[in-house]
């Protein structure tokens, strides 16, 4: 990728790198300089961006995601002209509105009225355009009664709402949005989402930085994942959202089949040796939503036992039971076991747990009306479910909607009509 971008390309970034020099020892006073005239300030080099290249077509919504410190905001500031890149080239077509650090340029000693006019001109409006749009800006921010109040008397939320409203009314063709959609209360947040939807429908180009993978999948045509200033993956928004979640929770990798659990004082002729979680490749500490998986435990019998009941439970991070099963509920005959025998119990299912961390507990019980617990292993191991479909509950069960219109009411035939 080099040269002037082709027609239809709104943003082109080619090999952009940015490095910061961070002093590890500050000499901030005249006394320190006088006492230590030869002391040199030592610095560390932070590579915020390293050879980043991508392009965004006009009218697309492009997501930029990554963990804290991955270089997302640095990239946006380079695009907005706040930072100068050390290497590489960037091209942007059309008037740009950076939703990066809302309120930058506001003067706290001036009223909201004056700040709106000054900020509007700074963002490319003519003075006449800024005055003409003032009423609409204040209406959108819902700050009419505070319009003549100095900004230093505003709450931080009110300042952000005012700044966002000014940005919205610039009518830019290119929007750079850096984690500012969730400003204000719930009603104002919905207005922010409405703006994003309307801008997308109008064919504006949007670069969206967010940690919300639901936003990425709802709004973005494509996306990019950054980690330590480098591109991890670039392309389909759903794929990038999934990789981001895996990066945060830990990619599913094979692990040892659990740790041997200590014997419990409550064990009665049975010992749960270990418990683990596994996917199609074997024991692991993380699995993706929708993938086949299994809960497993290894049991050693210290005395002969006939028809024991095996049970497994899964709890989420809030200690809520999300899944529980037993061989008795499933009407599974377990069999007879001799002293010294070791068995493995596994429960297989497709993983539709919501993303997050879970713990696994196992039990062995005496079959019968009393169902006495012979052995129990609480929080024997933990595992992570990675995915971007958070849903609204503890699990995200596969489902499909069906919408059917009711049959039209049949008009009764007039009296005397021929049959």
In short:
Helices cover 21% and strands 35% of the residues.
List key phrases describing it.
single chain; 419 residues; alpha/beta; Rossmann fold; Coagulation Factor XIII, Chain A, domain 1; 2 domains; 6-stranded mixed β-sheet; 5-stranded mixed β-sheet; 21% helix
Write structural notes for this entry.
Helix 3 packs across helix 4 (127-141), helix 3 crosses helix 5 (156-168) and helix 7 packs antiparallel against helix 8. The strands form 5 sheets. A 6-stranded mixed beta sheet has the order 5-6-7-3-8-9, with helices on both faces. It has 419 residues and is an alpha/beta fold. It contains 8 helices and 20 strands. The protein is 21% helix and 35% strand. It has 2 domains: 9-249, 3-Layer(aba) Sandwich (Rossmann fold), CATH 3.40.50.300; 270-386, Coagulation Factor XIII, Chain A, domain 1 (Distorted Sandwich). The model is unreliable at 252-258 (pLDDT under 50).
Give the secondary structure arrangement, pairings included:
Elements: E1 9-23, H1 30-35, E2 43-57, E3 61-66, H2 72-80, E4 87-92, E5 96-99, H3 112-122, H4 127-141, H5 156-168, E6 174-178, H6 186-201, E7 205-209, H7 213-219, E8 222-227, E9 230-236, H8 237-249, E10 270-279, E11 282-283, E12 286-288, E13 292-301, E14 305-306, E15 309-316, E16 321-326, E17 336-337, E18 342-350, E19 356-365, E20 373-386
Parallel strand pairs: 3-7, 3-8, 5-6, 6-7, 12-20
Antiparallel strand pairs: 1-2, 1-4, 8-9, 10-11, 10-13, 13-18, 14-17, 15-16, 15-19, 19-20
Helix pairs in contact: 3-4, 3-5, 4-5, 7-8
């Amino acid at each position: 990728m080099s040269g002037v971008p082709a027609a239809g390309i709104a943003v082109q970034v080619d090999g952009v790198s940015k490095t910061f020099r961070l002093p590890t020892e500050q000499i901030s006073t005249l006394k320190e300089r006088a006492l230590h005239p030869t002391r040199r300030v030592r610095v560390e080099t932070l590579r915020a961006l390293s050879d980043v290249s991508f392009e965004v077509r006009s009218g697309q919504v492009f997501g930029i995601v990554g963990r804290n410190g991955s270089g997302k905001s640095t990239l946006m500031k380079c695009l907005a002209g706040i930072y100068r890149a050390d290497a590489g080239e960037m091209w942007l077509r059309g008037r740009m509105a950076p939703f990066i650090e809302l309120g930058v340029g506001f003067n706290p000693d001036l009223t909201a009225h004056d700040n709106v006019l000054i900020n509007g001109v700074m963002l490319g409006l003519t003075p006449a355009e800024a005055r003409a749009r003032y009423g609409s800006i204040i209406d959108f921010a819902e700050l009419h009664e505070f319009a003549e109040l100095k900004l230093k008397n505003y709450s931080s939320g009110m300042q952000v709402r005012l700044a966002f409203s000014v940005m919205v009314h610039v009518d830019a063709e290119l929007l750079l949005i850096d984690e500012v959609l969730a400003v204000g209360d719930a009603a104002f947040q919905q207005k922010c989402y409405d703006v994003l939807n309307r801008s997308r429908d109008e064919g504006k180009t949007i670069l969206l930085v967010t940690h919300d993978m639901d936003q990425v999948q709802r709004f973005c045509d494509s996306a990019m994942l950054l980690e330590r200033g480098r591109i991890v993956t670039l392309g389909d928004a759903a794929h990038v959202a999934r990789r981001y979640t895996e990066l945060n929770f830990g990619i599913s990798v094979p692990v040892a089949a659990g740790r041997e659990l200590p014997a419990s004082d409550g064990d009665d002729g049975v010992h749960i040796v270990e418990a683990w979680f596994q996917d199609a490749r074997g024991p692991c500490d993380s699995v993706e939503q929708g993938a086949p998986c299994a809960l497993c435990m290894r049991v050693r019998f210290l005395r002969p036992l006939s028809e024991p009941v095996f049970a497994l439970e899964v709890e989420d991070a809030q200690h809520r039971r999300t899944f529980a099963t037993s061989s008795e509920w499933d009407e599974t005959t377990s069999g007879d076991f001799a002293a010294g025998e070791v068995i493995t119990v596994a429960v297989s299912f497709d993983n539709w747990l919501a993303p997050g961390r879970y713990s696994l507990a196992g039990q062995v019980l005496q079959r019968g009306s009393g169902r006495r617990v012979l052995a129990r292993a609480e929080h024997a191991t933990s595992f992570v479910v990675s995915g971007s479909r958070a849903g609204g509950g503890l699990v995200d069960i596969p489902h499909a909607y069906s919408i059917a219109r009711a049959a039209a009411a049949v008009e009764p035939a007039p009296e005397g009509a021929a049959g």
